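Table S5 (text form). Sequence records supplied for joint modeling of the two-component complex.
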Amino acid sequence: MRHISALVSHTRRMIAHNWVSLAAITIVTFLAFIAVVGPLMTAYDPYVTDLANVFSPPGKLHWFGTDQLGRDVLSRVVASARIDLSVAICAVAASFTVGVGIGGLAGYFGGSFDLWTSRIAEMVQVFPLFVLAMALVAALGNDLRNVVLATAIVNLPFYIRLARVEAGVLSTQLFVEAARAAGNGDARIISRVLLPNVMPNLMIQLSVNLGWAILNAASLSFIGLGIRPPTAEWGIMVAEGATQAMAGHWWLIVFPGFALALAVFAFNLLGDALRDMFDIHSR
Amino acid sequence: MGLVTFLLRRLIAAVPAVGALVVATFVIMRVLPGDPAVFFSSSPVPTAEETAYVRQKLGLDRSLPEQLLIYLKDIGSADLGMSFTTGRPVLTELKERLPASLELAISALLLALAVSIPLGVAAAIWSGSPLDHIARVVSSIGVSMPTFVTGLILTYVFFLWLGLAPEPVDRIDMFITAPPRVTGFLLIDSTLSGDWIALRSAAARLVLPSVTMAIFVLSPLTRMTRSAMLGVLSSDFVRTARAMGLSDRTVYVRYALRNALLPVLTTVGIVFSTMLGSNVLVERVFGWPGIGSFALNALVASDYAPVQGFVLLMGLLMVAINLAIDVAYGLADPRARRMS
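The corresponding structure-token record, covering 623 residues in total, follows.
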């Protein structure tokens, strides 16, 4: 209990001193809010077409304008938040659990399992990640589930390597030795001693990764992989808007594009904020 | 360790990576849904006999290890299959289009380095200053902007609105004859043939896509330069150099920056990998005739031989680039040779 209240007060102090953390937490909270209750608040159905009202520029009735089918761009941008955030959260959660499991075990026990996993992780990491994700979606089948899967697989090496290094370094530390000497078993040492200590770095990685996963999902749907039209999704909206925008309908790319950039930016910023927050040197 | 031994050892160390890559592309091909024989046939809607013929020709009726051997033999004889969308060998297509992609990626990388190194150095020298914060915010925004959004917005502003940029199609104006192909890099080829009109047109078309890509990778480069520079600036030899009364310029450029550039070199590998990935998106937005747009068109048409060739080529490129960076590191810093 005591360290939780210490963490809360520390967080409060950091936020007061650091506008980056404040901005990051504000934007992420805002995005989460939009994703959860946003679709209930928008005035239009994101899928209802209104052919009498195509390409109306941003105005009082349609704040973000309407698209080539007369659909309300604001409603569609809001509806996208839920899809893109869910994809990113599912993918990152999967690679986090599996990656930390494999990496942690490899780092803690070492040996040939460690050697092989880190070799494979290294090789995968050399590869352009987006190309790998593209190839995986193409190979596994072009649907939403496989976008999540591909994003998760592509991110796996980061967690494996991070958890491995952290666990490897930590397991030689004196306090871990002490815990072992006190008669704690491997399972208890891993869950009670190692995991709490590797968490800060993993949380930073998690946040930055969420941003990357959103970008990855939207980029895949931009090139026509994974999520398909007419789904309201940022990447698809930009892709559909790309042809129209060159006829002067700028709002079709600017609003979904900036929403996407804002989401990625928020999670990158949160990563920075967490880095500041956890950094023992600056305390 | 001598230089030659070092180079040889690095070269040998790259062999397993290439091997794993070849096997990985094979596995990806085997996992593909549907019948590869249908995909690898020369016509989009093959007849039953044709499929059977292709299956036999490709060895798809044999066991998996045998198929892997056939695949290895094909790669060994530089046969990456045919693209049915263009009706030409995949290798020829990739060879023709690779310079376009590389020209784009390399100019974007040079542009990004030209901005991020001075920015990172300044941010480190005046760390904590408004300049440092601005550098951090600007590069964070850059890395959060999806390349396809940046590209479209830049096109909208500079082509459609201001009329300063050429239309986002191809590498050179369609009314200008391309210079004779020597390297495939239009900037180099047109300079070689002294064709200044072609050079101008090619350079103008290169600006927006490379700016788009450069913005995306500014952040890792600036951050790495800043932190490497901070590390070096607090080291003993810089303090000594200062104490000896050397000018700021000498201390920063000759002593600090030279040492700080090594970690940046390692980051360049990661950055280049990111760039090759985002190439697909940027080429799409700017109608750039590179390998990315080729692979993408093939992917959309379920033409898998080009995709497989593209993935293999990307992997080989990255192995080569990492090798080059390792070697450059070893040349610049003899200590790195001992460690490996």
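Note: The longest strand of chain B covers residues 82-83.
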